[in-house]
Amino acid sequence: MSFFEIDGSEKSGSGTILRYSATLTSITKKSLHLFNIRQKREKKGLRPQHLKAIEACKEITKGELKNAYVGSEEIFYTPGKKIFSGNYSFDIGTAGSTTMLASAIIPMLLFADTPSTIELTGGLFQDFAPAAHHLAFVVLPLLKRMNIDISLEILKPGYVPTGGGKIKLKIHPIKKNVLPICLEKQGKIKKIKGIALSSNLKEQEVSKRMFLSFQKELENMGLNIKSDIELIYDETADQKGASLTCFIETETGCIIGIDVAGKIGRTSEAIGKTVAKRLMQDFNSNATVDRYTADQLILYAALAKGTSKYIIPKMTEHIESNLWLIEKFLNVKSEIFGNLLTIHGIG
């Protein structure tokens, strides 16, 4: 058997290469040999969340997987001949990111015969991973415009270090084609919305304090806009935790969002201020998507029938990695001119 070879030390050298290689090989039915996994990360090889991603792909396609264990730097994966819809449940077992796990599972289930439901357990709000609220209120609405129908329900928040959070996704198969997305003009700010979530911290009024700090920082930057932030005080999480996700909706239909999670030593006021600064940093770059969404749309744009265009805030290692992977697996071509990214989907 011949294997499609991917060197995991290329580009970002991160878990992104494993997640997207796993889902792309499941879609294309290529046998994958992935080596040098996460070579540019402090802890090389598979971590629990990466292992669960490749195991999920194997389960959904009824494929074969070899040499997959925590710490492994090389795996062999042969997907089955079909992507099976169903009701799936995957527990990372740590506070590893459920949204990143979802990014490996969602694309292939678009090619199943009937809708699927997946329940994922782990972390929902943490550094270095998109928040569940960012996925729900920024990424999924943009995918909806691409004819991709996915709903997300947060069953229970989960934070570092305990995890234990749960999200539930319903993924509908593609009807006809994935549509390209074109966001070439940013437009003026129409609304600023968001969710200030805190768990087991009601007495400290953490959600309110994050919101007030966010609003104050907007005013300090000269924005005379009253943000619409929903305050949530949760008492179901296994530990104390917090997250602030805020997003701009523009007159041309852009959605630009930023999230920051709580952390020991990180005050509510610091969270609010940081979200406001990063949000306006991305908006003031004239981008039509934010720094997190920019790399997440690439795979879907590659699968679309037609050409997608959007303006990124700046080039990142994850954008570079994903563009490299769609060319390797799908022979999809892309160009970047200034910060305008063009992706020629294969339909």
Structural summary, described in words:
With 347 residues, the chain is an alpha/beta fold. The protein folds into three domains: 1-84, Translation Initiation Factor IF3, CATH 3.30.110; 86-175, UDP-n-acetylglucosamine1-carboxyvinyl-transferase, Chain, CATH 3.65.10.20; 185-284, RNA 3'-terminal phosphate cyclase, insert domain (Dihydrodipicolinate Reductase, domain 2, 2-Layer Sandwich), CATH 3.30.360. 31% of the residues lie in helices and 27% in strands. The chain is built from nine helices and 16 strands. The protein has helices at residues 15-28, 48-61, 98-109, 132-144, 206-220, 268-284, 293-296, 298-303, 317-330; strands spanning 4-7, 32-35, 64-66, 74-78, 87-91, 116-122, 150-156, 165-171, 182-183, 189-199, 228-234, 241-250, 255-261, 307-311, 334-337, 340-344. The protein has a four-stranded mixed β-sheet with strand order 1-2-4-3, with helices on one face. The chain has a four-stranded mixed β-sheet with strand order 5-6-8-7, with helices on one face. A four-stranded mixed β-sheet has the order 9-14-16-15. A hairpin with a 7-residue loop joins strand 3 and strand 4 (74-78). Helix 1 packs parallel to helix 9 (317-330).
